[in-house]
Each structure stands twice: as C-alpha cells, then as structure tokens.
Automatic annotation (TrEMBL):
One of its GO terms (molecular function) is metal ion binding. Binds 1 potassium ion per subunit. This is Bifunctional NAD(P)H-hydrate repair enzyme. AMP binds at K408, D409, H410, H411, T412, G437. It comes from Chryseobacterium indoltheticum. The lineage of its organism: Bacteria, Pseudomonadati, Bacteroidota, Flavobacteriia, Flavobacteriales. Keywords: ATP-binding, Isomerase, Lyase, Metal-binding, Multifunctional enzyme, NAD, NADP, Nucleotide-binding, Potassium.
Length: 505
C-alpha cells in the first residue's frame, strides 16, 4: 500500500469527488459510516460516547459519527468550542443535522471538567485531522491534556489530534493518545515512526473508496508492506524442484560463547526454505551446530573465532550473527569482501567491523543487504536527531553505496538504492529480545539464495519474521515467546501463504 502525503491525500479526495462523482459531503458521510460501523461492531460493551469535534472536516466526521451512533441507540454527548462556531462547509452541514436531533446534548469544551467520564463511556477524538497546521494551544491543548488523563477507551478519527501526518512533532507537542486510530484509506507516515507512532494505538485502515485510478497513477516513494505486496512477491515451491533449484546459503558467524546466534540464523535459513544450507563457524561450535542443526553442513572458519572465510561460487552469504570483532576476524572479513562481488547480507558484528574504518564501507558489494539496528546504524553512518532524520540519512547512504538497508525498528524500514521505503507492519515487542535479529539474517539470506531479488528478499524477509513473531505471541505471549518459537512459527506462516497462493477447489 502506498503511503500518501497530506497533499496527495487531499488530491485523491478532490479527484474522487470530481470523477466518481460524489459530493464532498457524501464522501464525508461514507467515511463516517465506515467509522460508525467499525465502532458499532467493536464496542458492544459500551453504551455511551463522548465525541470531541473541531471546526474542520475531522470535526465534520465526528458530527456524522455521533449522529450515526445515536441512531444505533447509543447515548451521545458532543463537545465543541462554543466560543468559535465557524465550521468548514461540510462540517457545518453535519453540525446542523446534529443540532436537529434533540436527544444529543451539545456541550462546550469548558464543560469537560464537570463531565462524568464513567466506565461505560468511550472518548472519540475528532478535533483535528490531516489539516493540522500548528501545535494545539489554548482550549484545544487543555481538552487534549484532560482527555489523555482519563482511563476511558479512546478512539481517534483519521489521526490522533495534534499529530502531523507527514513529519515529526516537536518534543513538547500535545497529542491525543489513542487506543485505536481509525484512519482513512492510507497509513500516514507519522504512524510508522516511534516518536509519533506511539500515540496511535492500534491502527485500523478503513477503505473509503477513494479513486483507485488516482492512487495507481500517483507515485509515492513510501509503501507499507501489506498482504497485497506480499502476494505479489511470494512464489509457491515448484513441484519439479530439486535442492539446486532453491539455492545455496552460507551463514557465517559465531565465536566462543556466541554459537547460539549463528545457530538461530542457520535454523532460520533452513526453515525459510534454502535448498542447501552451510554454516561457517569456528570449530568450538562444531558439535553444537551438527547436533542441533544436522541439516546444515559445517565449514570450519577457525578455532574460537573466525579467521578465514572460504569463498564459494553461486552462493549467498549471510555474515555477522555472533561473529565477534576480534582482529583476526576483522582481517578475514575484509579479505573476503575484497574478493567477493555478488550481493550478500551483512548484520551485527559484520557491520560493527565495517564501522571501524571508513574504507571498509566501499567493500560492500553493490546490491547487498545490510540489517542494522539503530545503534549499529549510528556506528556506521553517524548520529541523527530522530527516526525521520535517520531514515533520510539511510536513503542517502543506500543510494551512494548502491545497497539495500534494512533499518530495524518496531516498523522496520527497507530502503532501496532508488530511494523507495517499505515499512513493515508485522511483528511485535516480543521480538525485543537478544537473538531476534539473527533470525532475520537467516531468513533474508535464505530468500536471496532462493532467487528472490534483493528487494523481494528484504521485503518478504522482514514481513515473514514479523508475522511468525505475531503467531508466536498469540501462542505464548509477547513476554514468554522466544526467538526459537519465532523460527518454529515460520512453517505456519508459509502454510497461510501457500493457501492464499494456491488455486482452491
Ligand atoms: N481523506 C479523505 O479522503 C477524507 C477526509 N475527511 C476528513 O477531513 C480531515 C481533514 O480535514 P481538514 O482539512 O478540514 O482539516 P482538520 O479537520 O484537521 O481541520 C483543520 C482546521 O483546523 C484549523 N487548525 C489547524 N491546526 C489548528 C490548531 N493547532 N489549532 C486550532 N485550529 C487549527 C485549520 O485552520 C482548519 O480550519 C481528515 O483528517 C478527515 O478526518 C473526511 O471527512 C472525508 C474523506
Ligand atoms: N518492539 C518491537 N516491535 C517489533 N519488532 C521488534 C521490536 N523490537 C525488536 N524488534 C525486531 O527484532 C529484531 C531485533 O534485532 P537485533 O536488535 O539485531 O537483535 P539481536 O542482535 O539480539 O539478534 C529486529 O528485526 C527488530 O525489528
Ligand atoms: K482526530
């Protein structure tokens, strides 16, 4: 799914109105109906809604939603700024419709302090949408702050009020903190970054039927990895395949005390379907690896640390998990990179070694995939102020070096050399444990060996990793799930993918 800027959303709106055709107030009705239906089906334990409406079209959505929920039998109180009753055209239409309903009480923002937020009440935030032009101040700021102090469930319409859709807010900005955000048609960029995304709660994208023609014909560099993207990448395994069809992976890493990391990466490469899988590790890991991952063939890289990396042809290398940064290992990696031409995956200590010397960066083969977490990224490319700036820097580096950067985060970003960004929306904080990244390296290496392109391997890899983690969290909880559980859930993710990709009778 494309991530549109506020400007493009506005244009999509206008294009739909003109070409569907549909009036803008009908489009607002459609958007509100989608929200009301979602709320109606998901909030059955609550009887009362306090709806907070601003003066723009987001407020207009709020008025229409309030009316619809009232007609479904809920108790509704609507709060507005009675000192300033100037609305956008469509908001005014819905304000007037609401005023005609005697059963809905229209309250002033100032009444909030005396209002009874009992446990049956859900708060709906329709103060500001994508038209926010400055940080909320005065009564708006106060209302948001009071609402944020309440324990009642909170739903934002389109975007949490006070948040800019495309850019980072300044640090002290007042933003409504939602449990759910019902957003129209597209993910907004700010939902996908940690500084702002923490205000949205669960994001639900509602399809309000904006013109598909416009969406298809309007370019964007930012995408969310949704089911559609994955459906277009995933290839079912061919019946007449043999092990050679699905490529050769060599997972390189491990050092004394860190054989677990390379084990996790190796098992993941096997589980993700690589035809032949090798593990190049120091000898101290031989027995552990051969016992626990007998399907993988062992290549000796040294005694306690790797001091040589054998070059083999037609092989995809995934280097880094548990590798260590010893001088002998550094030498071995540099020597290997000096002679190696084809794209590979670099992670963890391989990246830490590369960040030691500016000249090493140039040794990364073009079209390779690197998978830094934020700290590794900083070691490689320097400090940035926030995750938006970090992404900008990553775009520059991906282009300059001609590589793919998988910037690991809650919503991991795959950045291509051409400047596209794919945000991942699978995965959960159960992955915030040592070992989770090693799995990702194994998966991406395996996919690249199986002849997925670099972009496909990175995009499908982060999605698979997150999806398996979501399955593991459902079974074991985010707290208790282990990286090993994530590896074991890969099978269920592939079963789902195959079911969707196979013709069903
Ligand atoms: N995207 C779509 O296709 C649709 C969008 N709709 C709604 O329209 C919204 C956008 O509407 P608008 O462009 O009217 O924008 P808003 O509803 O966000 O309101 C902007 C208004 O608030 C004022 N304002 C901005 N920042 C302020 C601040 N800090 N303090 C006080 N006033 C401030 C602006 O001057 C403007 O009058 C969307 O978020 C969505 O809720 C739907 O109604 C219909 C379909
Ligand atoms: N809160 C989170 N939500 C979603 N994914 C997460 C979260 N925390 C960590 N992850 C994922 O887990 C992995 C952690 O990688 P990394 O920090 O390299 O771990 P390690 O080096 O210990 O293996 C990344 O893929 C990251 O995106
Ligand atoms: K809002």
């Amino acid at each position: 799914m494309k991530v549109f800027t506020v400007e493009n959303i506005r244009l999509a709106d206008q294009y739909t109105i003109k070409n569907e055709p549909v009036s803008s107030v009908q489009l607002m009705e459609r958007a509100a109906l989608n929200c009301a239906e979602w709320i109606y089906s998901n909030c059955k334990n609550h009887t009362k809604f306090a709806v907070f409406c601003g003066n723009g079209n987001n407020g207009g959505d709020g008025f229409a939603i309030a009316r619809m929920l009232y007609l479904k039998g809920f108790d509704i109180d609507v709060f507005i700024n009675k000192d300033h009753l100037k609305f956008s055209d469509d908001a005014l239409v819905n304000y007037k419709k609401l005023k005609d309903i005697s059963g809905i009480s229209l309250k002033d923002f100032h009444e909030i302090e005396r209002y009874n937020f009992d446990e049956k009440t859900i708060i709906i935030d329709a103060l500001f949408g994508t038209g926010l032009s400055r940080n909320p101040e005065g009564i708006f700021k106060k209302v948001i702050e009071i609402l944020n102090s309440k324990v009642n469930p909170k739903i934002s319409i389109d975007i949490p009020s006070g948040m800019f859709a495309d850019q980072i807010n300044n640090e002290n900005a007042t933003i409504f903190k939602a449990d759910y955000t019902l957003t129209f048609q597209f993910w907004k960029r700010a939902f996908l970054h940690p500084e702002t995304g923490s205000f949205t709660g669960k994001v639900v994208v509602l399809d309000i039927n904006l013109s598909q023609e416009f969406i298809e014909n309007t370019s964007s560099n930012d995408f969310v990895i949704d089911d559609e993207v994955i459906k277009n990448i995933f290839k079912i395994r061919q019946d007449f395949a043999h092990k050679g069809t699905y490529g050769k992976s060599i997972i390189v890493g491990g050092s004394y005390g860190k054989i677990g990391a390379i084990m996790l990466a190796t098992k993941s490469a096997l589980k993700a379907g690589s035809g032949l899988t090798f593990v190049l590790a120091p000898n101290c890991g031989y027995e552990i690896l051969q016992t626990n991952a007998p399907e993988a063939m062992f290549m000796n890289g040294g005694e306690k640390n790797i001091n040589q990396i054998e070059e083999q042809e037609n092989t995809v290398y995934g280097i880094g998990p548990g590798l260590g940064t010893e001088k002998e290992t550094e030498k071995a990696l540099v020597k290997f990179l000096e002679n190696h031409q084809s794209p590979l995956i670099l992670d963890a200590d391989a990246l830490n070694i590369i960040s030691k010397d500016n000249n090493y960066m140039k040794l990364i083969p073009k079209k390779s995939i690197i998978t830094p977490h934020p700290k590794e990224f900083e070691r490689l490319f320097g400090k940035t102020e926030n995750s938006f700036d970090r992404l900008d820097l990553a775009k520059t580096k991906a282009k300059d070096l001609g590589i793919y950067i998988v910037l690991k985060d809650h919503h991991t970003q795959v950045i291509t050399p051409s400047g596209n960004v794919f945000y991942n929306i699978t995965g959960n904080s159960g992955l915030a444990k040592g070992g989770s990244g090693d799995i990702l390296t194994g998966i991406i290496t395996s996919l690249l060996a199986q002849k997925y392109s670099e972009e496909e391997a990175a995009v499908l890899g982060v999605w698979l990793h997150g999806k398996a983690a979501d399955f593991a969290a459902e079974k074991y909880s985010k707290e208790a799930m282990q990286p090993t559980d994530v590896i074991n859930e890969l099978g269920n993710v592939f079963l789902d993918l195959n079911k969707k990709a196979t013709t069903q009778l």
